[in-house]
């Protein structure tokens, strides 16, 4: 290869694609989806989060209204979310969040409900509404340390009972002196 | 059964050896019988268990080597094939099963997870980094998972190992097989008092090859197979 075959390096520098700050500040409010609008019509003030990549509607509830709205979501004639698919835990470093994935077996629609835990990692249990939350919330408690208030049997489900800490947290460090025999 | 009546009891062998009697043909017959009927335990914790089942199925047919009798209880089994990942929650159960097996007992570490921890070795919080940190291992089978042929090969290697044992050496080897951890009141595996960190990486491939210290000790004492210094010296001592 000689120097003549090199591509000339005189192409213009591409413009920065970083959006201006004013655009972020003036982001339009996310419109309510079908389920969110139904909840608003019933008198519940909720936070709409739009749709995810697959078009599933997402809403966020406060801890105080969570049980009430969950009851509506299950028993209302237009919602009928009678199936709780799974609970996901999230660690945002500042706080923890539980994500409930709901399904309706009559209309075959999905809904994602997010509930942020408080500073002491307390969050209301939705087990009175969906009994399937039992083991899922135990798993989120085991791995993320989210304490679900109202859960009748909140104990570890995956890790052993003697385990210290919650392994999927961002700040988790495995330093149990009893397990020195398994150090790398 | 009365222990003194047992032909293979330690007291009886000590009596024989102190009177100048060597049991060689008995060794051969005894090992031939033992090595051709190694009964494994039905113990599979994850995907390696599928290959273990395949090895026992007609296509690979572990019955050709006399190990078709998978026992569902540790009391009746000679061999533990740790087929699958061992987590911290499973480790106490595995240790309990190992200690419930009757001597002589052997362990085949099957799969990368039980050899070194495998792909969970770096960052996992829940996986034991090799079963040789807990129990002594005789044969290692790498692979993820290993083919049934590899398991059959490991069984043949184990049979060779059994055939090289004499009754005296077998007692010595069993004394060397020491478990260095114990269960505390929380069902947590903790190190025994006096055990150092080196003890847990002593058995296997994770440090200086296979069982180096124990082999060195045995070599210094002249106790390895093919060296008759042991019995020869004992006989000379007794003659004096």
How would you characterize this protein structure?
The complex is a heterodimer of chains A (184) and B (240). With 184 residues, chain A is of the alpha/beta class. Chain A is built from 4 helices and 7 strands, in the order H-H-E-E-H-E-E-E-E-H-E. Chain A has one domain: NADH:ubiquinone oxidoreductase Nqo5 subunit (Beta Polymerase, domain 2). Chain A has helices at 21-25, 34-41, 66-75, 133-144; strands at residues 47-51, 57-61, 83-91, 96-103, 110-116, 122-124, 147-149. In chain A, helix 4 (133-144) links the parallel strand 6 (122-124) and strand 7. Chain A starts with 20 loop residues before the first helix and ends in a 35-residue tail after the last strand. Chain B is mainly α and 240 residues long. Chain B has 10 helices and 5 strands. Chain B has a single domain (10-239), classed as Rossmann fold (3-Layer(aba) Sandwich), CATH 3.40.50.12280. In chain B, strand 1 (79-83), helix 4 and strand 2 form a beta-alpha-beta unit. Chain B has a 3-stranded parallel beta sheet. A two-stranded antiparallel ribbon of chain B has the order 4-5. The A-B interface holds A 158-163, 167, 172, 174, 178-184 and B 88-89, 121-122, 125-126, 128-129, 133-134, 180-181, 184, 186-191, 195, 197, 200.
- The total beta strand count of chain B reads 5
User: How many domain units of chain B?
Assistant: 1
* Major beta-sheet overview of chain A: 5 strands, mixed
What is the succession of H and E elements of chain A? HHEEHEEEEHE
Overall structural domain count of chain A: 1
Task: Please report the number of helical segments of chain A.
Answer: 4
Quote the average pLDDT of chain A. 86
- Tell me the name of the CATH homologous superfamily of chain A: NADH:ubiquinone oxidoreductase Nqo5 subunit
Secondary-structure content class of chain B: mainly alpha
CATH topology-level name of chain A = Beta Polymerase, domain 2
Q: What is the subunit organization of this protein?
A: heterodimer
- Overall outline of chain B: globular
**CATH C-level of chain B:** Alpha Beta
| Reported CATH architecture of chain A | 2-Layer Sandwich
């Amino acid at each position: 290869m000689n120097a003549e075959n090199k591509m000339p390096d005189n192409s213009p520098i591409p413009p920065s694609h970083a959006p201006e700050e004013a655009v972020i500040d003036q982001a339009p409010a996310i419109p309510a989806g079908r389920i969110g609008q139904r909840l608003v019509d019933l008198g519940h003030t909720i936070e709409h989060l739009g749709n995810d990549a697959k078009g599933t509607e997402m809403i966020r509830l406060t801890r105080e209204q969570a049980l009430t709205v969950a009851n509506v979501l299950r028993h209302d004639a237009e919602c009928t979310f009678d199936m709780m698919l799974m609970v996901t835990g999230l660690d945002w470093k500042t706080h923890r969040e539980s994500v409930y994935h709901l399904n309706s077996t009559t209309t075959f629609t999905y809904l994602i409900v997010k509930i942020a835990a408080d500073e002491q990692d307390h969050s209301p249990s939705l087990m009175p509404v969906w009994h399937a939350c039992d083991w899922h919330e135990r798993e989120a408690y085991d791995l993320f340390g989210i304490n679900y208030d109202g859960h009748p049997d909140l104990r570890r489900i995956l890790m052993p009972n003697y385990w210290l800490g919650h392994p999927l947290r961002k700040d988790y460090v495995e330093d149990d002196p009893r397990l020195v025999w398994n150090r790398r | 059964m009365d222990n003194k009546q047992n032909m293979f009891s330690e007291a009886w062998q000590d009596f024989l050896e102190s009177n100048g009697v060597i049991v060689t043909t008995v060794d051969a017959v005894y090992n031939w019988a033992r090595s051709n009927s190694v009964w494994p335990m039905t113990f599979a914790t994850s995907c390696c268990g599928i290959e273990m089942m395949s090895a026992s199925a007609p296509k690979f047919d572990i019955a050709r080597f006399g190990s078709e009798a998978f026992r569902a209880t540790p009391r009746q089994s000679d061999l533990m094939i740790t087929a699958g990942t061992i987590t911290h929650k499973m480790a106490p159960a595995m240790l309990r099963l190992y200690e419930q097996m009757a001597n002589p007992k052997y362990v085949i570490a099957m799969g990368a997870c039980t050899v070194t921890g495998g792909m969970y070795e770096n960052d996992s919080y829940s996986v034991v980094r090799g079963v040789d940190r807990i129990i002594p291992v005789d044969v290692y089978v790498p692979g993820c998972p290993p083919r049934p042929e590899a398991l059959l090969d490991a069984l043949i290697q184990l049979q060779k190992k059994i055939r090289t044992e004499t009754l005296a050496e077998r007692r010595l080897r069993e004394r060397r097989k020491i478990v260095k951890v114990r269960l505390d009141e929380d069902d947590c595996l903790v190190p025994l008092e006096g055990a150092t960190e080196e003890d847990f990486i002593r058995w296997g491939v994770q440090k200086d090859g296979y069982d180096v210290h124990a082999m060195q000790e045995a070599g210094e004492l002249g106790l390895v197979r093919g060296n008759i210094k042991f019995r020869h010296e004992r006989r000379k001592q007794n003659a004096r």
